[in-house]
Amino acid sequence: MARSAEQAKQGGFTLVELMIVVAIIAILAAIAIPQYSQYVINAKTTHAKNNLLQLATLEEQYYQDCRSYAGQVGTIATVSAAGTCGGAITWPDANTAPAASSANVNGRYFTYAVGTANSSQNFTIQAQGISTAFDGATNVLFAITESGLKTCTGPYGCNGGNW
Fold first, then answer.
1. Which of 109, 118, 124, 105 lies closest to 56 in space, CA to CA?
2. DSSP bridge pairs for 43
């Protein structure tokens, strides 16, 4: 059976055409994947900064009531059970709240630490990055004090030591 000229032209893609498409996809992936990774890291650091600001606000509210800063973070239940001035502030995110009041709270990407000094008249809240969330970097740290000083170390989210 002989094929007509029209049927012979309907062969499909050549190997060269497929290789060109694969090369274009590889170039786009080489550009997009690092950009996406940086976007994800920026989202993680922004979440930590927001948590620090919320905790600092809660510390100030606690100070207004108790004339000292809280040295721990707890759930609404543990803070309510301890009373108004029980030494702990309520963790702002109920989904990741600690089981009991503690000076350290392990979040998904950061470990948060609340510390007081000078007879509880000063506080520092720190967010230490968990290395698995930051490509093995262990020096990702954000902090805020009662005076509003915002400091940071590490390769992500720092602008000259401040955020």
1. 124
2. none
Task: Give the long-range contacts of residues 76-81, CB within 8 A, separation 24 or more.
Answer: none
Beta strand pairing call for 104-106 and 72-74: unpaired
Strand bridging mode 104-106 / 110-117:
antiparallel
Q: Which two tokens stand for residue 55?
A: 């905790």
Q: Which helix (H) or strand (E) holds 88?
A: strand 88-90
Query: Using DSSP, how many helices (H) and how many strands (E) does the chain show?
Result: 3, 7
**pLDDT tens, position by position, 63-110:** 888 888 888 887 655 565 566 677 777 777 666 666 566 667 777 888
Distance of CA 50 to the CA centre of its chain: 9
Average pLDDT over residues 149-159: 88
Sign of CA dihedral 151, 155, 158, 161: positive
Give me the helices (H) in the chain, please: 5-8, 15-66, 76-82
